Amino acid sequence: MTRTIPISRRSALAGGLAAAGALAAPALTRALGGSEEGRPLPVLPELAMERDGDLVRAALDVASREIDIAGRPVELMTYAGGFPGPVIRLRRADTLELTFANRLDEPTNLHTHGLAVSPEGEGDNPFRYVGAGETVHYRFALGDDPRNTGLFWYHPHLQGNQAEQLFRGLAGPIVVDGPEDIADSLGPHEERVIVLKDLRLGEDGVRLHGAADWINGLEGELALLNGMVRPVLEARERRLRLRLINASNARYWRLTTEPARDLHIVALDGHVLAAPWRTSEVSLAPAERIDLVVDLEPGEPLWLVDRPVPRRTSFGRRAQKVLRILPPRGGTARPDPLPARRDTPWSGPAGREIAEERPVVFSLFYINGQGCYGRPGDAAMFTPRLGSYEIWEVSNVDSMDHPFHLHTWPFFALSRNGRPVPGTPLRDTVNLAPGERMRIGVAFDGNPGRSVFHCHIVEHAEKGMMAILEVTA
Ligand code: C2O
Ligand code: CU
């Protein structure tokens, strides 16, 4: 009846922490002491809300707080006292009114990454400044838009503070339920939302940026799933839907199972795919989301293993086991095959008239040769017309990877290096390896106003890899 988790302390050392080289020996011992191995993967709480029809009211606080990380107390920044923050769970016709209290001693703000909502005023406004101690209101109207069904996330977006605040823990999931979600066609299954996030600890808690981290992006030696090192997911169903969010500043996650299993990607950046993609490995650049279906075999536990990504900061990293998955005990039936195809609820790029084609060239720390620091008065690089459809050719001429992210207007991934992307999925973040180029189709359908696009290695965004666009009627 008891299940033992066969990990020796030594394998934990070899797997992850030893690669860090950052922790002094006593800190390392402490990080490993009181090991969390074998503790259940936490189910993140949902933010408490008051619902009145489609109007939903909630309060969200930002504050510093001591959180138990790998058995030691670490001062982090938290939403609603949690790390990661609570799940904001909505329906696609909802309007969320949020009372947002900044109890930090520095300014911040709030970004709802991936939602197609207004970027103006009290909406998803990246130029907003919420001073230390201030309480303000946010209002996010999802507008019954099918593109807002899915998995998104929230994090701070204030230039000058966002890289440190994200690294210190400010991130949480947004889940929007809607009729276009795939849940109904999966049969009996268990859904788990998992925030992937790394941390780097020193003697005094979180160890923030050194000079090189502003170039490479800050990464940490601890690989956390919902705030925990190497937890256990004891499944209740044979079919798991893992809803993964990469909330790391700069860490790329590359996940496989041991033993190897078919993995089915059913949604990217929260948006359901027309057909599931079968694979044995998934990669998540910073800010990307993947909904993954994994079917378990009775009596066959799995490891989820994170492998190093060939990126210049990752060469010292080794593969490490990050999650133990135990199949359900009782005999539950074999899951049915996944549906081969479904209609996506939004219309695709086919037949849309192209209003403009624009190059977007990423180099360190510029977009199209310009640095931008997101000040409210800065000039817009692009001024698309509301309702128009544009092709952007995004290219990376640099020697390191850069994940491209556009706010407010999700886009179709059309091609990568000249080859069509199967199914032209709807995205909000796509990674570009050195030398790569992608064509994306951006539909400026709704939500006029000023917003930004940028590299989602947040250090790069802070150093200028960001640009403003203004969409007007
Ligand atoms: Cu997730 Cu502009 O950010
Ligand atoms: Cu970058």
Task: Walk me through this protein's architecture.
With 473 residues, the chain is mostly beta strands. The protein has 5 helices and 34 strands. The protein has helices at residues 9-15, 25-32, 162-167, 213-216, 458-462; strands at residues 49-52, 55-69, 72-79, 88-91, 95-102, 111-113, 135-141, 150-155, 172-177, 190-199, 201-202, 205-206, 222-225, 228-229, 232-234, 239-246, 253-258, 263-268, 271-279, 281-284, 289-295, 302-306, 320-326, 354-363, 366-367, 389-396, 402-406, 411-416, 419-420, 426-427, 429-432, 437-443, 449-455, 466-471. The relative contact order is 0.14. CU-O-CU linkage is lined by residues 111, 113, 155, 157, 287, 405, 407, 452, 454, 456.
Number of strands: 34
Class from helix and strand fractions:
mainly beta
SS summary, helix count: 5
Nearest-integer average pLDDT: 91
Q: Mind telling me the C-alpha Rg?
A: 21 Å
| Outline | globular
Distance between the termini: 65 Å
Helical amount? under 10%
